[in-house]
Amino acid sequence: MALLPILEFPDPRLRKVAVNVEHINEDTRRLAKDMLETMYHAPGIGLAASQVNVHQRIVVIDVSDDGDEPRVLINPSWEPLTEEMQNYQEGCLSVPEFYDDVARYSKIQLSAFDEHGEPISEQAEGLFAVCIQHELDHLNGKLFVDYLSRLKRDRIRKKLEKKHREDAKDALYEAKVKMEAEA
Ligand code: QAP
Ligand code: CO
């Protein structure tokens, strides 16, 4: 088990389009397990492989109250079952500390494979449906901030770029202190 580092907006690697998993095997299951551990640790309710810099079509989701209903979706796809949309205040582990409303289809048909290669075909509504649409966007290089105004997106980008500069500065300082202590 391992915690995986999460890419943060505006990292260009989040814009890559993920490829289908050709063979579901032990490597796939190991990655899915590590993604679930990373998601639960955050804590979060959904994580796409793209966010941990693996550009394969794998997502993990757990929208249960107790966090004990992990779902692994491989090569997932969805179709709307209604024209009705629902607004939900979304967040994203790749856009930490920012939240805003996004309109998504309220009822969808999900198709995917699970971690054992068993086909999944089910209807999804509510938060599960929102989360599927959000996570599948990641596999296509799309982020929830893309649905916001340019003004809002730019403001989020600038704040995160500033945070990343500060994080880098802090890491450099820590490395220096450690080096001097060892010298
Ligand atoms: C996507 O997002 C989602 O900013 C999953 O500081 C979100 O798990 C789908 C998180 C809402 C539907 C509705 C975000 C954790 C977690 C943060 C997440 C943060 C810590 C986000
Ligand atoms: Co996300």
What does this structure look like?
- This protein is of the alpha+beta class and 183 residues long.
- Helices cover 34% and strands 23% of the residues.
- The strands form 2 sheets. The protein has a 5-stranded antiparallel beta sheet with strand order 1-2-3-6-7. Strands 4-5 form a two-stranded antiparallel ribbon.
- A hairpin with a 5-residue loop joins strand 6 and strand 7.
- The site of 2-phenylethyl (2E)-3-(3,4-dihydroxyphenyl)prop-2-enoate has 14 residues, from strand 4 and helix 2.
Key features of this structure:
binds cobalt (II) ion, five-stranded antiparallel sheet, alpha+beta, binds 2-phenylethyl (2E)-3-(3,4-dihydroxyphenyl)prop-2-enoate, 183 residues, 3 helices
What structural category do the secondary elements indicate?
alpha+beta
Instruction: Work out the number of β strands.
Output: 7
Ligands (ions, cofactors included): 2-phenylethyl (2E)-3-(3,4-dihydroxyphenyl)prop-2-enoate, cobalt (II) ion
- List low-pLDDT spans: none
**Helicity, as a percent range:** 25-40%
Calculate Rg over CA atoms.
18 Å
Spatial sequence of strands, sheet with the most strands: 1-2-3-6-7
Report the major sheet. 5 strands, antiparallel
